[in-house]
Amino acid sequence: MFKKLMLSLLFGLVFAGKVMAQPVDYYLPYPGILPDHPLYWLKMVRDRVGLLITVGNQAKAEKLLLYADKRLGAAWALIDGNKVPLGVSTLTKAEKYLEQAVIRGGDDSFKTRLGKAILKHREVLLLVRPKVGSEPGNIEAMLMRLDQFKQQFALGQVTALIYFEEAGGEEFKVEATTAYEALEKVSVEQDWELTFKDYDFGKMVDSVNGVANSKAKAWIFYVNGAAGDRAADKFELKAGDKVEWKYEAVKL
Predict the structure, then answer these.
(1) Comparing C-alpha atoms, which of 133, 96, 98, 89 is closest to residue 119?
(2) What is d(CA 19, CA 190) in angstroms, rounded to the nearest whole number?
(3) Chain-centre distance of CA 131, in angstroms?
(4) Which class would CATH give 157-249?
(5) What is the per-residue pLDDT for 76?
(6) What's the confidence (pLDDT) of residue 130?
(7) Which terminus of the chain has fewer CB atoms gathered within 10 Å of its CB, N or C?
(8) Are 223 and 241 in contact (CB under 8 A)?
């Protein structure tokens, strides 16, 4: 069921080559057996023992984040399967684990992962909220807490400037974690068709609102005035950054 949910989330967001929405670029691990399984208590014991024998603050934080993500996926599957009370209970455990991971923290790389995890947890909560029926208060409290985490990790607005050929630039304010996501969110808001190609190094934008790459010109991005030195979906942003997407001459 979980795999079906992930596939529907991923493939249901693209229609006829046009980006319709933007899932957070963060992988949720397969949750394994769900809390409604008779042997789930063994998994809980294993997790507790695993946490107890884990040494080091960041190692414990990484373990807590893993538990949080797995329970998020389990809760999603339960709620989608109409087991709402158990799903909401599992969501509560997921967010408690996430909060403990946030409190422990870690190095910059781990904090980047935490930031994306916070956005993914928020995304899933918003997806399941319409299905929880009589239990919306719990979801709202969790969303409020996640919004506090967003502020803590400076997951806020960035400025996106999109320059079309001979048409000047348009400025937009969006919440994004990568240079690609900033363009993607603007495209969704403005109902622009956005196409891209996937390579080993990441995504490369192919066209924006009908303006496509050619041998002479292409879509190139800049962050705070400096040209991007990696694929746009790999270029991490922080609140307040200025992202510019320009259709300009290719420099050989």
Answers:
(1) 98
(2) 11
(3) 21
(4) mainly beta
(5) 94
(6) 87
(7) C
(8) yes
**What spatial distance separates the first Cα and last Cα of the chain, rounded to whole Å?**
49
Number of neighbouring beta carbons within 10 Å of residue 21: 12
Angle CA 87–91–97, to nearest 5: 145
3-state secondary structure the chain: CHHHHHHHHHHCCEECCEECCCCCCCCCCCCCCCCCCCCHHHHHHHHHHHHHHCCCHHHHHHHHHHHHHHHHHHHHHHHHCCCHHHHHHHHHHHHHHHHHHHHHCCCHHHHHHHHHHHHHHHHHHHHHHHHCCCCHHHHHHHHHHHHHHHHHCCCCEEEEEEEECCCEEEEEEEECCEHHHHHHHHHHHHCCCEEEEEECCEEEEEEECCEECCCCEEEEEEECCEECCCCHHHCECCCCCEEEEEEEECCC
CA dist 119 and 121 (Å) reads 6
As annotated, the residues of the chain forming the CATH 2.170.130.30 domain(s) are: 157-249
Strands 211-212 and 202-208: antiparallel
Note whether 186 and 178 are within 8 A (CB). Answer: no
Contact 9/3 with Cβ under 8 angstroms? no
**Mean pLDDT within 66-72:** 96
User: What digits encode the pLDDT tens for the residues 160-211?
Assistant: 889 887 667 888 888 787 899 889 888 988 889 999 998 999 899 999 999 9
What is the C-alpha R_g of the chain? 20
The pLDDT of residue 207: 93
